[in-house]
Amino acid sequence: MRQETGAPVVLIHDVTKEYQLGKTTILALKGVSLGVSRGEFLCVAGPSGSGKTTLLNMIGCLDKPTSGQVAIEGREVTSLSRDELARLRRQKIGFIFQTFSLIPVLSAYENVEFPLVLRGDHAKHHRERVGQILQAVGLDEVVRHRPDELSGGQQQRVAIARALVTEPALILADEPTANLDSETGKSIIDLMHRLSRDQGTTFVFSTHDLKIMERADRIVHLKDGSIVPKS
To answer: ABC transporter domain location, by residue (predicted)?
Structure first.
């Protein structure tokens, strides 16, 4: 069951984001406010150009808002330095991309281990944690396989395991089923939904996939950089 105790994992208040395109100012987000509870399975939906990816970049500390505030687990992040943001991402946030973004020369095990190496965790902890998470996503029999030896669904499972291995407070997934066939996509959605329920992992998706929306606790609709109120 989803846990809702304590402060929200994500709290965004009145966020705007402007980009310059030549002499034109593009307003990608227009005063967006949003809270995400611990363990929530949340979808951000909307047409192309609505601001979905920009919003995920704000939540993931990959970009800073032009105005407004972003807090992750109660910590306001918009004033942090680049190094502080990188440290926060390593400790608190996991990312799943539609292109998988695995390192081709590394095995499944090594791809999942990589965030722990970056964080400087002890090697013994690596073995225990990587083994646990690969088993949880059903890949314990292909740990030595490189990405080109895995199916698309297996590669996405490696990407999910890599996002989970540091036990982040939050996982952001940008169109995670876009490059998968429908059957594989369903199995990946089932896996992420189970992890959300069993481990209390918070997921925020940017997606057009109706199958993900059907499983969501909540859907936030964006249009032209603003959240569309419920009808």
So the answer is: 10-231
